[in-house]
Amino acid sequence: MKVKINGELTDWIIPQASLRQGDPLSPYLFVLCANVLSNYLIQAQTSNSIKGIKIARNAPTINHLMYADDILIFFRANRNTCHSVSTLLNKFGEMAGLSMNHQKSEIKFSPNISQQGAQILTGIFNCKKVDHLGRYLGGFIDGHDTAKRNASLILDNIQQRLAGWKAKMLSQAARTTLIKAVVSVIPLFHMQHTWLSHSQADKCDAAIRKFFWGHWEDSKTPIMISWGKLCRRSEEGGMGFKRMMEVNEALLAKQVWRILTLEDSLVSKVFMGKYRSSFQNYQLMPKPNSSPLWKKLCRASRVVTDHIGWRVGNGEKIKLNDAKWIRPDYQNHSFEKLCDLMHPGVVSRTRVADKWVWLLTKNGDFSVKHAYKAITNTPPDQRSGCNWIKLWKLPLPQRILHFWWKTVNNGLPLRWNLARKGFQIPTVCPNGCDALETEEHILKDCQYARRVWFASRINLKLDELPAMSMIDWINQVMNSQNMGKPSHQGQLILLLISLCWSIYTHRNLLLFQQGKADIMECLQRAYHVVDAINGLESIQSQDYFFKLPAPTRVRGIGSDTIEHNLNPTQFTCAWTHDCRLRRKVISILHLQGPQPRKICSLVVDHDQHTQLAMLRTIRLFSGAIRHGTEGSINIHSPDEQIVHQLRSTTKASIRFQTIINDILIFVLTKTFVSIFSSVKTTVVWKGVLLPGL
Prior knowledge:
This is Ribonuclease H. By secondary structure, this protein is an alpha+beta fold. It contains 25 helices and 19 strands. A 5-stranded mixed β-sheet has the order 15-14-13-16-17. It has a two-stranded antiparallel sheet with strand order 1-2. A hairpin with a 4-residue loop joins strand 13 (569-578) and strand 14.
């Protein structure tokens, strides 16, 4: 074996001892051994000694599937084939030391074979015969009612996880965190291949809803806010919970995207080999005899097919009459494909193939998050007047943020709100007032609240407030503050919301624990929260650790070791604007000697996107460098976004992908190393000050 260190391969290493489980090289060696077994089975398929299954005439033949240390082999139920499989497994065991576990191995026959024949063939492998393969990776993989049983598993897993927590000891904010971080993630794997019915999805939602509101066997908390509002995104006034039905549809849509775009993958070859005729005019229309799984995928495909677009490469795949392409103005022509109208190399110098992209994301990749958003498509709630994005970014404890969220949504369990839900209870204020106990009353109109506001640090006289409710006034103060910089207004909003929370907490202590109407205790409770936040921000501003930049992952274009050893040649990309000719000139300069030397230039219209023009110039430069160039090259760019897109592991924006792919192909196919970096210095070129360098 060889090991790559700092981008260079070492000499051959011959292992002197075997590796045990837990060794860092063990997983890689296991994969290599598994590939040997896979290649043996493929060769046996080619020689017809072990024939696999084929679900359609145009689908590939499959005789094995592998995952981790498990393998599922498909073959014909006859004696010769069984002996061939047994011989192959024994041969592999002698070579790799990985023998078949007869106690854990199972064999399943089709209903077309007799009982006597099944017993004879089972004896060849010395393993147990089963009618169902049971559960694998937590789900059922065969049987007529697989989807129904997997749906029951999803509900059981959610209920067991919820019952395992000491939910009574958790606040509603803590339960919210558990729902988002744990419960909502449990069914994701199974829902990628299981379609939940409406009743099954509603049961999952009901279990989560009861856990959030605290419905236990011995007591039930009233539901103050609808489930639909809870499932809104947090920036739209909800809790950010997910409806299981829509999540299920988004996850199945992801499989549709994989089938349509990953043409070389096995799942795409199998499904498109059988159901390619179902895909017509960018619509998946299942036939009556289609499999249940394919029918479910077709039902979930709308969010994929409605938002497909083309990323142009060489233009050979895009037909001019394509439904996802621009309709031509002139119909009487002999052109059929887009490549017939293109000059070669204009869009893509490397002539990469055209590609489908998903238009709801910037990089064109399918996203379950954006698919769920498109499926739900709930309009934001404008009636509250609260900037929810600013609210959830406040550095207050989650229990206080939840309190204010419920306050704005009229979701506090106050007497008037409970009476509207049908509870037969008194509706007057427990502080001795004759008014109805509403959010506005306990926070503003109550005599106790007035004394608290006046005794606070801001000495607020409620009679001097604008003619609006207390909640609307606080939301107005929060909406007008700048979240990027600390300010007096930012401190004010923290104090206002904390005081409201403390007043409500005092109300609960007075009502349920026979507390006293102590104003100073109410104030100290709010001050303790605000002062703790200010102290934490002070520590962060003084500690150098909090000022360190976050680490980022970059593409493997060269390495720091190579850069320092090879002393790369320095180039930079700069641009000037000619106002008289209404043109932009983007140039590559060689930074050698006292004066930069121009290597190449690109002249574009003044309104062309500057980043796009710079990338085109870098592509022109990198494509012109000859093969065999010695040394390395460092290309500086004044735009940090360009550097990030060239070095980042994530995909760039759709409009830049073709050009960036060309640049990376030029870089990787030549012997030099190209390192893209940004600089903040200023370079003078022929007396012209180049901005941003």
